[in-house]
Amino acid sequence: MNLSLLSRGNRKRLARAFYILHFTFFILHSSFAQTLSPQAKVSLITVAPGDELYSSFGHTALWISDPMYGVDRVYNYGTFASYADNFYVKFLKGTLPYYVSVYPMPNMIYGSQQENRTLKEQILNLSDAQKQRLFQLLETNALPENREYSYRFYYDNCATRPRDMLVKACGDSLRFANVVDSTKSYRDWMNEYIANQAWARMGMNLGIGYPADIKATPWQAMYLPDNVYTEVDHARLITANGQETPLVANSLMLFRAVTAEETNAFLTYLLSPDFFFAVLLVVVFLITRRQQRAKKAGFWLDRLLFGFTGFWGWFLVFLWFGTDHGVTTWNPALLFMMPLHVPLIFWVTRRGNPQTIRTYFLLTMVCLVLFFLYAFFQDYLYGFTFFLLTLLFRAFYQYRTASTQTAASTYARS
């Protein structure tokens, strides 16, 4: 054998030839893998809610595996790029693009273990044709030109997208049983998942409007991964020979979360908005009593409280007209956080006209009571109740003070 074959130049040529052959084989294999084998498996993957706000509602994905061709692809519709230009502005306005990402199942299992979130698999009883159709739909959707979509929390998200893909692949043969509770609103479902995040629950309930209070049908309630899991678990498929068969062939637990230690309930309450605003109410009550004894109006406190409220009211107006979330319109919380407090609270208190002050705070009380009644009947008095009572107390104090001054002025003129 000629040892010159092992020279550095020949070794480089052999390595280049091997790389080209390997790359060509990979391309051919990927192209060939577009047709699944009869051993292919399609599963719906459900991830339990996590501790962070972004993970509070759980997650849904579709997994296609085919051991014959080495296919192991999880399709995740909950991906967004935190490094995108103007990320926070787009996120706030509801225009941040989400996209479908694809990765192997070990990555998903590792992520669930790191976040201590239970991972469940439902193996779907699809025909070979339905598996192939679903695979093609997902692969097409995962292309760079197709993968982005406009995320809508209630209407178009990481749970509804896999469900919709499944419906497209199965067509009329897929029948959901509609077993999910249809008496709850979008807001009711949401609040079940953020009960332990008091500040976030308060903010989200104040930020969303009337669309969130519409009763969600079982189909609409599938904006939550757990509801998708439940409906899929009870769904049926009509086979080619007209027979009904369960959509789910088998359910597996891929990872079970370790039970976390319970947090101190008293400490949790001390850090909650309920406690914070209860303390504020007491402080405002004591200041008001002092002003009452001194026979002073103390408008500085009203400018602080109602000015703060008005500022956030303008933020709610921005969420209504300046964003594309779809659920921040027609917000009753504007009766509570009335944006016109800025600038009216400054104009009314500086003008010092008792009749104007009386009218202003009377209208404020009416708005506060109306919102309280709406939130009470829709069952979302979370976190802000004591702050609402604080505003109502101050509005009543100023209304009564102005009424006394108006009556005294009328008596003097008579």
UniProtKB/TrEMBL annotation:
It holds the Pfam family Lnb_N. Signal peptide: none annotated. The keyword Transmembrane helix applies. The chain crosses the membrane at residues 266-288, 300-321, 333-350, 357-374, 380-397. Residues 39-177 form the Lnb N-terminal periplasmic domain. InterPro entries: 5TMH_Lnb, Lnb_N. This is DUF4105 domain-containing protein. Residues 270-401 form the Lnb-like transmembrane domain.
